[in-house]
Write a structure and sequence with these properties.
The protein is built from nine helices and nine strands. The protein is of the alpha/beta class. The strands form three sheets. Strands 4-6-7-9-8 form a five-stranded mixed beta sheet, covered by helices on one side.
Length: 373
């Protein structure tokens, strides 16, 4: 149900009322001075004998008390009236501020009920129109996003089967299962096999992204040794490390790290982070992987001496399809989906992922997983 705010009243009229009430103060003092002058005039006519007797003195005292009492009551009335008027002005403004804050956090059901045609009324009307446009725009974006996700999911599923068939045909041909091939043919087919593997990797990433957006990216947790999983991932990158001449240092935990997690998903996180670290580290660089057990959680660090992330792009690192300008110039391959998936997987486990980076010096990616023994 929409939240209703009711800004009302004419600002000019309220300010005018305040000025009128405030003007009563000098009027009251003017009256007091007039009475005092009148008393002085009487004294000048009759001398001190006018108020010499007790009755006259008492009369003078009563007049003064009445004047002070009237002034006191006027001050109270002015303060009270000014407070009411000020509250009437600031209340709708406070409501507008609250409404803007609600919109800033994504609540587009805020509406103001307008009863006046003053400046506040115009502001509230403009606010309602703005919120309506924002809501319509968000609904369009959600619709387009949903259609895009469905298209990606369908396209990826349609591509997956033929790509898998091509993979196995090329694999059998390269292994000589369908006949002997020459060295030149083997080289050509190897390039085709590598390109096909990249396409399969892209399709799998697109499928995983569509599952995340559809809320179908579930976990299958079981008890595993995280140290053993990390060692397996590290070993799988031996050839890539050798080809790129990048050194790898692994700092394992001194004790086994058994706890519950989705091995396939965490393997994906480690593989994506390792692949990025190696791919963007120049020849002769170094990648360091470490794991440690802390109170309540396990922490993994993957540090490299690679390209780093530009300062003005750090807030987009975990966004879909993001690739830094510096790595694009390096003409390295990548889909820009890996870190987006890493973030979703880690957070799905109840953990956290973040990074530190200096362009040209390297990056350190960290993620934690809660211990559920």
């Amino acid at each position: 149900m929409s939240n209703l705010f009711r800004p009302q009243g004419v600002i000019f009229r309220k300010i005018l009322v305040i000025l009128i009430f405030l003007s009563l103060i000098p009027v009251a003092f003017s009256a007091f001075l007039t009475i005092s002058t009148y008393q002085g005039f009487l004294v000048s006519l009759g001398g001190e004998s006018v108020f010499a007797n007790p009755e006259a003195a008492q009369l003078k005292q009563n007049i003064l008390m009445q004047i002070f009492l009237i002034l006191f009551l006027l001050v109270i009335l002015i303060v009270f009236a000014s407070s009411l008027v000020a509250y009437g002005i600031t209340r709708p403004l406070s409501s507008l501020v609250k409404g803007v804050k609600q919109v800033s956090v994504g609540n587009y059901n805020i509406r103001f009920r307008i009863k006046s045609k003053d400046e506040l009324g115009e502001l509230a009307m403009a606010f309602n129109e703005m919120v309506l446009r924002l809501k319509e725009q968000r609904e369009r974006e959600e619709f387009v996003g949903k259609m895009k996700t469905e298209f990606i999911s369908i396209a990826a599923h349609q591509l997956r089967t033929p790509l898998s068939s091509v993979k196995w045909i090329l694999k059998m041909t390269l292994n000589g299962d369908v006949g002997k091939i020459s060295t030149k043919q083997h080289d050509f087919l190897s390039k085709g096999y590598t390109a096909n593997e990249r396409m399969i990797h892209l399709v799998n990433d697109l499928l995983n992204v569509s599952r995340v957006e559809e809320g179908k990216f579930g976990l299958k947790v079981s008890m595993y040794d995280l140290d053993k999983v990390i060692r397996g991932v590290v070993d799988s990158f031996e050839q890539q490390l050798s080809v790129r001449n990048v050194k790898l240092e692994y700092v394992p935990s001194p004790t086994p790290l058994f706890f519950k997690f989705d091995r396939e998903r965490i393997d994906m996180v480690l593989s994506n982070l390792m692949d990025n670290a190696i791919r963007y580290t120049p020849v002769g660089g170094k990648v360091t992987v470490s794991v440690e057990e802390r109170e309540g959680f396990l922490g993994v660090t993957i540090k490299d001496t690679g390209a780093g992330v530009p300062e003005d792009q750090k807030d987009r690192v975990f966004s879909k399809f993001f690739r830094g300008n510096n790595v694009v110039r390096m003409q390295t391959e990548g889909t820009g989906l890996g870190l987006y998936l890493c973030k979703n997987i880690v957070e799905k486990h109840g953990g956290r992922i973040w990074f530190e980076s200096t362009e040209g010096k390297g990056s350190s990616f960290y993620f934690t997983l809660p211990k559920n023994k």
